[in-house]
Amino acid sequence: MDTREEPESNAPRYKQDLEQQSKQNIDDSKNWIVEDGKKFRLPYKIIKQVVFSNVSKADMIDQEHAARLQYRLLLLEPVIKAYVEFQKGRITVIYNPAGADNIREKMSLDDIIAFLAKEGVNIDRERADERDYDYYKEFYSYAFHPKVIREHPPYGYTLEQWKKIKPKWEAKSKEYEEKKWLNFKKYQKDYEDKHPEVYAKPAA
User: Fold this and answer.
1) Is the pTM of this model over 0.70?
2) pLDDT tens digits, residue range 5-24?
3) Which residues partner with 49 through β-bridges?
């Protein structure tokens, strides 16, 4: 539950954030990034991702109930992303952990397990695989720099094979585009020579 005081309607949000940060004695310097000479503050830096495997399908009931569980997880303020995979018996949660250097709502791994238990899904803590999750590299950059993050080799090639042939392929593609443009210009010139009336200036 959000314990922050309700800000005045005309008060800037960033001012309220700074006041809250001061109260919590949080080091905000880690949440600033610089891109193209401009400074931005991210809501999170290092957060957590936990994957619960071998979750009982009987607890999740069916696909529809699994989808509802995913929705209810996403309604939790500290949860940034959640995936409930019924067929794989797996639940993945990216969340803002207790003790993180930010002013957002937080929760612990035990809180997540307790929430799932209330939803009828009993989790074996030993099967919880938790790791640090870099919000900037794995979430922010994925969303705002997709060409860098999402580049995949063409079908039938491994990434290593594609890295080796990519420069040659790009050079051939460039050569092909240049030839195509020259052919178009030639066609345009030939058409103009054959149909001068089309390009003739109207009489004054």
Assistant:
1) no
2) 444 444 555 555 555 555 55
3) 94, 131
Secondary-structure percent of the chain, ordered helix, strand, coil, rounded to 5: 50, 20, 35
In angstroms, the CA 110 to CA 112 distance is 5
Closest CA to 106 of 47, 158, 174: 47
Contact 159, 120 (CB under 8 A): no
Give CATH for domain 13-23+32-149: 3.30.70.100
Tokens for 35?
A: 């891109």
Q: What's the CA gap between 37 and 92, in Å, rounded?
A: 35
Domain ranges (residues) in the chain:
13-23+32-149, 159-199
Burial class (CB in 10 A: 0-12, 13-18, 19+), 119: middle
For residue 137, the Cα-to-chain-centroid distance in whole angstroms is 9
